[in-house]
Amino acid sequence: MLLYTVTVAPASDGKMVKELLASVRLSRTLRRSLLEQGLIQVNARPCFWTSRVHVGDEVTVMAPVEAPGAVAPEDLPLDVVFEDEHLLIVDKAAGMVVHPTGSYAQGTLVAAVNFYLKGRGPTGHCRPLHRLDKDTSGLVIFAKHKLAHERLTRQLLARQIHREYVAFVGGWVPFERRTIDAPICRPANDRLQRAVAPYGKDAVTDVRLVARCKSWPASVVALRLHTGRTHQIRVHLAHIGHPVLCDWLYGPGESVQGPECGELRRQALHAGRLVLRHPQSGAVLTLDAPLPADMSAWLSETCGWLGGESTSHLCLYSPGGDEIV
Protein backbone atom coordinates (compact mmCIF):
# COMPACT_ATOMS: atom_id res chain seq x y z
CA MET A 1 0.00 0.00 0.00
CA LEU A 2 1.30 3.46 -0.93
CA LEU A 3 1.38 5.68 2.15
CA TYR A 4 3.14 8.77 0.88
CA THR A 5 4.56 10.09 -2.38
CA VAL A 6 6.23 13.35 -3.40
CA THR A 7 7.87 14.56 -6.59
CA VAL A 8 11.03 16.57 -5.94
CA ALA A 9 10.57 20.26 -6.79
CA PRO A 10 13.41 22.63 -7.75
CA ALA A 11 13.50 24.04 -4.21
CA SER A 12 14.32 20.56 -2.87
CA ASP A 13 16.99 19.66 -5.42
CA GLY A 14 20.01 18.05 -3.72
CA LYS A 15 18.28 17.48 -0.38
CA MET A 16 18.55 14.20 1.50
CA VAL A 17 15.60 11.83 1.72
CA LYS A 18 15.36 12.47 5.47
CA GLU A 19 14.87 16.20 4.83
CA LEU A 20 12.21 15.57 2.22
CA LEU A 21 10.31 13.21 4.53
CA ALA A 22 10.62 15.32 7.67
CA SER A 23 6.93 16.28 7.50
CA VAL A 24 5.91 12.61 7.56
CA ARG A 25 7.37 12.39 11.10
CA LEU A 26 8.34 8.73 11.05
CA SER A 27 9.44 7.34 14.40
CA ARG A 28 12.95 5.88 14.53
CA THR A 29 11.59 2.37 14.94
CA LEU A 30 9.20 2.62 12.01
CA ARG A 31 11.80 4.39 9.85
CA ARG A 32 14.33 1.63 10.49
CA SER A 33 11.77 -1.05 9.63
CA LEU A 34 10.79 0.68 6.39
CA LEU A 35 14.40 1.14 5.29
CA GLU A 36 15.31 -2.47 6.10
CA GLN A 37 12.35 -3.72 4.04
CA GLY A 38 13.19 -1.38 1.15
CA LEU A 39 9.88 0.44 1.49
CA ILE A 40 11.30 3.97 1.31
CA GLN A 41 12.17 4.38 -2.35
CA VAL A 42 13.43 6.90 -4.90
CA ASN A 43 12.14 6.23 -8.40
CA ALA A 44 10.89 2.79 -7.32
CA ARG A 45 14.28 1.73 -5.94
CA PRO A 46 15.20 1.30 -2.24
CA CYS A 47 17.31 4.16 -0.92
CA PHE A 48 19.19 5.26 2.19
CA TRP A 49 17.99 7.87 4.69
CA THR A 50 20.86 10.09 3.56
CA SER A 51 20.41 9.55 -0.20
CA ARG A 52 20.32 12.75 -2.26
CA VAL A 53 17.36 13.51 -4.53
CA HIS A 54 17.04 15.70 -7.60
CA VAL A 55 14.35 17.56 -9.49
CA GLY A 56 11.71 15.20 -10.86
CA ASP A 57 12.63 12.25 -8.61
CA GLU A 58 9.66 10.48 -7.08
CA VAL A 59 10.05 9.56 -3.41
CA THR A 60 7.58 7.02 -2.00
CA VAL A 61 6.85 5.39 1.33
CA MET A 62 5.07 2.02 1.27
CA ALA A 63 3.23 0.34 4.12
CA PRO A 64 5.23 -2.40 5.85
CA VAL A 65 4.05 -5.98 5.66
CA GLU A 66 3.09 -7.04 9.18
CA ALA A 67 2.18 -10.31 10.78
CA PRO A 68 -1.48 -10.58 11.80
CA GLY A 69 -2.34 -9.86 15.41
CA ALA A 70 -2.13 -12.64 17.96
CA VAL A 71 -5.87 -12.61 18.76
CA ALA A 72 -7.74 -15.36 16.92
CA PRO A 73 -10.60 -14.13 14.68
CA GLU A 74 -14.15 -14.75 15.89
CA ASP A 75 -17.35 -14.41 13.89
CA LEU A 76 -19.07 -11.80 16.06
CA PRO A 77 -21.46 -8.94 15.21
CA LEU A 78 -19.58 -5.77 14.26
CA ASP A 79 -21.05 -2.34 13.51
CA VAL A 80 -18.66 -0.53 11.15
CA VAL A 81 -19.13 3.25 11.10
CA PHE A 82 -16.18 4.23 8.87
CA GLU A 83 -13.56 2.34 6.89
CA ASP A 84 -10.84 3.00 4.32
CA GLU A 85 -7.30 1.73 3.70
CA HIS A 86 -5.99 3.44 6.83
CA LEU A 87 -8.78 3.47 9.41
CA LEU A 88 -11.56 1.32 10.79
CA ILE A 89 -13.98 2.93 13.24
CA VAL A 90 -16.60 0.72 14.88
CA ASP A 91 -19.52 1.17 17.25
CA LYS A 92 -18.81 -1.24 20.13
CA ALA A 93 -21.75 -2.92 21.81
CA ALA A 94 -22.12 -2.80 25.58
CA GLY A 95 -20.91 -5.99 27.26
CA MET A 96 -17.96 -6.53 24.91
CA VAL A 97 -14.36 -5.98 26.04
CA VAL A 98 -11.88 -4.45 23.57
CA HIS A 99 -8.83 -6.64 24.32
CA PRO A 100 -8.70 -10.21 25.65
CA THR A 101 -8.06 -10.41 29.39
CA GLY A 102 -7.76 -13.20 31.92
CA SER A 103 -11.51 -13.05 32.56
CA TYR A 104 -12.53 -12.45 28.95
CA ALA A 105 -10.31 -14.46 26.63
CA GLN A 106 -12.96 -14.70 23.91
CA GLY A 107 -15.77 -12.57 22.49
CA THR A 108 -13.63 -9.44 22.26
CA LEU A 109 -13.86 -6.50 19.88
CA VAL A 110 -10.33 -7.19 18.57
CA ALA A 111 -11.37 -10.75 17.68
CA ALA A 112 -14.44 -9.43 15.85
CA VAL A 113 -12.32 -6.93 13.89
CA ASN A 114 -9.80 -9.62 12.96
CA PHE A 115 -12.59 -11.79 11.58
CA TYR A 116 -14.10 -8.87 9.68
CA LEU A 117 -10.75 -8.17 8.00
CA LYS A 118 -9.93 -11.83 7.38
CA GLY A 119 -9.76 -12.67 3.70
CA ARG A 120 -9.45 -9.03 2.64
CA GLY A 121 -5.81 -9.34 1.65
CA PRO A 122 -2.62 -8.51 3.58
CA THR A 123 -4.22 -6.20 6.13
CA GLY A 124 -1.73 -7.19 8.85
CA HIS A 125 -2.22 -6.04 12.41
CA CYS A 126 -5.18 -3.69 12.95
CA ARG A 127 -4.58 -1.85 16.22
CA PRO A 128 -7.13 -0.20 18.52
CA LEU A 129 -6.05 3.34 19.38
CA HIS A 130 -7.94 3.48 22.68
CA ARG A 131 -10.32 1.45 24.80
CA LEU A 132 -13.81 1.60 26.23
CA ASP A 133 -14.91 -0.15 29.40
CA LYS A 134 -16.74 -3.45 28.90
CA ASP A 135 -20.19 -1.99 29.62
CA THR A 136 -19.63 1.32 27.82
CA SER A 137 -20.93 1.38 24.25
CA GLY A 138 -19.77 3.52 21.36
CA LEU A 139 -17.01 4.48 18.96
CA VAL A 140 -13.55 2.88 18.93
CA ILE A 141 -10.76 3.74 16.46
CA PHE A 142 -8.59 1.06 14.83
CA ALA A 143 -5.48 1.89 12.77
CA LYS A 144 -4.77 -0.46 9.87
CA HIS A 145 -1.02 0.15 9.73
CA LYS A 146 1.82 1.50 11.86
CA LEU A 147 2.06 4.95 10.31
CA ALA A 148 -1.65 5.58 10.84
CA HIS A 149 -1.31 4.40 14.44
CA GLU A 150 1.67 6.69 15.05
CA ARG A 151 -0.09 9.74 13.61
CA LEU A 152 -3.29 9.08 15.52
CA THR A 153 -1.35 8.49 18.74
CA ARG A 154 0.31 11.89 18.32
CA GLN A 155 -3.12 13.47 17.89
CA LEU A 156 -4.36 11.71 20.99
CA LEU A 157 -1.40 12.81 23.11
CA ALA A 158 -1.77 16.38 21.83
CA ARG A 159 -5.48 16.27 22.79
CA GLN A 160 -6.50 16.84 19.17
CA ILE A 161 -8.91 13.90 18.99
CA HIS A 162 -12.22 14.95 20.48
CA ARG A 163 -14.11 12.16 22.24
CA GLU A 164 -17.61 12.99 23.36
CA TYR A 165 -19.96 10.89 25.46
CA VAL A 166 -23.54 10.81 26.67
CA ALA A 167 -24.27 9.64 30.21
CA PHE A 168 -27.34 9.25 32.39
CA VAL A 169 -26.43 10.20 35.95
CA GLY A 170 -28.04 10.08 39.36
CA GLY A 171 -29.65 13.22 40.76
CA TRP A 172 -30.65 16.54 39.22
CA VAL A 173 -27.43 18.18 38.04
CA PRO A 174 -27.45 21.80 39.37
CA PHE A 175 -25.17 23.37 36.74
CA GLU A 176 -25.32 23.97 32.99
CA ARG A 177 -21.60 23.50 32.25
CA ARG A 178 -18.64 22.48 34.33
CA THR A 179 -15.05 21.37 33.83
CA ILE A 180 -13.91 18.69 36.25
CA ASP A 181 -10.16 18.99 36.76
CA ALA A 182 -9.34 16.30 39.31
CA PRO A 183 -6.29 13.98 39.25
CA ILE A 184 -7.00 10.24 39.19
CA CYS A 185 -4.93 7.45 40.72
CA ARG A 186 -5.18 3.72 41.40
CA PRO A 187 -5.32 3.03 45.13
CA ALA A 188 -2.51 0.74 46.27
CA ASN A 189 -4.91 -1.85 47.66
CA ASP A 190 -7.31 -2.01 44.70
CA ARG A 191 -6.41 -3.33 41.23
CA LEU A 192 -9.73 -2.37 39.61
CA GLN A 193 -11.08 0.81 41.11
CA ARG A 194 -9.72 4.33 40.53
CA ALA A 195 -10.09 7.39 42.73
CA VAL A 196 -9.56 11.14 42.74
CA ALA A 197 -6.40 12.03 44.67
CA PRO A 198 -4.03 15.03 44.65
CA TYR A 199 -1.07 12.80 43.80
CA GLY A 200 -2.82 11.18 40.80
CA LYS A 201 -2.34 11.80 37.09
CA ASP A 202 -4.02 14.86 35.63
CA ALA A 203 -7.55 14.23 34.34
CA VAL A 204 -9.90 16.79 32.79
CA THR A 205 -13.52 16.29 31.71
CA ASP A 206 -15.98 18.87 30.33
CA VAL A 207 -19.61 18.32 31.35
CA ARG A 208 -22.73 19.91 29.85
CA LEU A 209 -26.27 19.40 31.14
CA VAL A 210 -28.63 18.16 28.43
CA ALA A 211 -31.81 17.47 30.43
CA ARG A 212 -33.13 16.87 33.93
CA CYS A 213 -35.57 13.97 34.14
CA LYS A 214 -38.99 14.76 35.59
CA SER A 215 -40.15 11.29 36.62
CA TRP A 216 -36.85 10.12 38.12
CA PRO A 217 -34.07 11.91 40.07
CA ALA A 218 -31.60 11.70 37.19
CA SER A 219 -30.07 13.86 34.49
CA VAL A 220 -28.67 13.48 30.97
CA VAL A 221 -25.22 14.97 30.42
CA ALA A 222 -22.82 15.29 27.51
CA LEU A 223 -19.11 14.97 28.22
CA ARG A 224 -15.85 15.66 26.45
CA LEU A 225 -12.57 14.04 27.47
CA HIS A 226 -9.35 16.04 27.48
CA THR A 227 -7.38 13.13 28.96
CA GLY A 228 -7.88 9.37 28.84
CA ARG A 229 -7.49 7.95 32.33
CA THR A 230 -8.98 4.57 33.17
CA HIS A 231 -12.63 4.98 34.24
CA GLN A 232 -12.19 8.77 33.97
CA ILE A 233 -15.80 9.76 33.31
CA ARG A 234 -17.19 7.34 35.88
CA VAL A 235 -14.74 8.50 38.55
CA HIS A 236 -15.25 12.21 37.84
CA LEU A 237 -19.05 12.02 37.84
CA ALA A 238 -19.08 10.03 41.07
CA HIS A 239 -16.62 12.57 42.54
CA ILE A 240 -19.09 15.45 42.02
CA GLY A 241 -21.98 13.42 43.45
CA HIS A 242 -23.68 12.38 40.20
CA PRO A 243 -22.51 8.83 39.42
CA VAL A 244 -23.43 7.13 36.15
CA LEU A 245 -26.66 5.18 36.53
CA CYS A 246 -26.25 1.42 36.95
CA ASP A 247 -22.52 1.76 37.61
CA TRP A 248 -21.88 -1.06 40.07
CA LEU A 249 -18.33 0.11 40.80
CA TYR A 250 -18.76 3.84 41.42
CA GLY A 251 -22.50 4.30 41.82
CA PRO A 252 -25.56 2.80 43.49
CA GLY A 253 -25.66 -0.07 40.99
CA GLU A 254 -28.65 -2.31 41.57
CA SER A 255 -30.61 0.35 43.46
CA VAL A 256 -31.58 1.94 40.13
CA GLN A 257 -32.17 -1.32 38.27
CA GLY A 258 -35.92 -1.32 38.58
CA PRO A 259 -38.94 -0.94 36.28
CA GLU A 260 -38.44 2.84 36.29
CA CYS A 261 -35.26 2.32 34.25
CA GLY A 262 -36.88 0.21 31.57
CA GLU A 263 -34.37 -2.22 30.09
CA LEU A 264 -31.28 -0.37 31.30
CA ARG A 265 -29.08 -2.91 33.07
CA ARG A 266 -25.52 -1.56 32.60
CA GLN A 267 -23.66 1.67 33.22
CA ALA A 268 -25.45 4.32 31.17
CA LEU A 269 -22.45 5.63 29.24
CA HIS A 270 -22.09 5.88 25.46
CA ALA A 271 -19.19 7.19 23.34
CA GLY A 272 -21.34 9.04 20.84
CA ARG A 273 -18.95 11.21 18.83
CA LEU A 274 -15.40 11.34 17.52
CA VAL A 275 -13.78 14.31 15.80
CA LEU A 276 -10.28 13.71 14.43
CA ARG A 277 -7.99 14.41 11.51
CA HIS A 278 -7.55 11.59 9.02
CA PRO A 279 -4.00 10.26 9.48
CA GLN A 280 -3.33 10.28 5.74
CA SER A 281 -5.29 13.15 4.16
CA GLY A 282 -5.55 15.44 7.17
CA ALA A 283 -9.27 15.95 6.53
CA VAL A 284 -11.45 16.44 9.62
CA LEU A 285 -13.72 13.46 10.30
CA THR A 286 -16.80 13.83 12.49
CA LEU A 287 -18.45 10.52 13.32
CA ASP A 288 -21.57 9.86 15.38
CA ALA A 289 -22.98 6.66 16.84
CA PRO A 290 -26.69 6.57 17.78
CA LEU A 291 -27.71 5.73 21.30
CA PRO A 292 -28.11 1.94 21.68
CA ALA A 293 -31.58 0.58 22.25
CA ASP A 294 -31.37 0.28 26.05
CA MET A 295 -30.28 3.90 26.57
CA SER A 296 -32.64 5.23 23.92
CA ALA A 297 -35.63 3.46 25.51
CA TRP A 298 -34.74 4.74 28.97
CA LEU A 299 -34.28 8.27 27.63
CA SER A 300 -37.72 8.36 26.04
CA GLU A 301 -39.66 6.40 28.66
CA THR A 302 -38.15 7.73 31.87
CA CYS A 303 -37.13 11.25 30.84
CA GLY A 304 -39.89 11.83 28.31
CA TRP A 305 -37.22 12.69 25.73
CA LEU A 306 -38.60 12.98 22.20
CA GLY A 307 -35.35 13.61 20.35
CA GLY A 308 -35.01 10.10 18.90
CA GLU A 309 -31.87 8.01 19.07
CA SER A 310 -29.35 10.39 17.48
CA THR A 311 -26.57 11.65 19.73
CA SER A 312 -25.53 14.51 17.43
CA HIS A 313 -27.75 17.03 19.25
CA LEU A 314 -26.49 15.86 22.65
CA CYS A 315 -22.79 16.60 22.13
CA LEU A 316 -20.75 19.54 23.29
CA TYR A 317 -19.24 20.91 20.13
CA SER A 318 -20.29 21.74 16.58
CA PRO A 319 -20.42 18.87 14.05
CA GLY A 320 -18.04 20.75 11.77
CA GLY A 321 -15.11 20.06 14.05
CA ASP A 322 -14.32 23.73 14.65
CA GLU A 323 -12.27 22.86 17.71
CA ILE A 324 -9.81 20.64 15.84
CA VAL A 325 -6.34 22.16 15.37
Summarize the structure in words.
This protein is α+β, with helices and mostly antiparallel strands and 325 residues long. The chain has three domains: 61 residues, Structural Genomics Hypothetical 15.5 Kd Protein In mrcA-pckA Intergenic Region, Chain A (Roll), CATH 3.10.290; 77 residues, Pseudouridine synthase, CATH 3.30.2350.10; 156 residues, Pseudouridine synthase (2-Layer Sandwich), CATH 3.30.2350. It is 16% helix and 26% strand. The chain is built from six helices and 16 strands. Strands 5, 6, 7, 8, 9, 10, 13, 14, 15 and 16 form a ten-stranded mixed sheet that branches. The longest helix has 12 residues. The radius of gyration is 23 Å and the shape is elongated.
SSE blueprint and pairings:
Blueprint: E1 2-7, H1 17-20, H2 28-36, E2 40-42, E3 45-46, E4 58-62, E5 80-83, E6 87-92, H3 109-117, E7 127-128, E8 137-143, H4 146-157, E9 162-170, E10 177-181, E11 184-185, E12 195-196, E13 204-212, E14 218-225, H5 232-239, E15 269-277, E16 284-288, H6 293-302
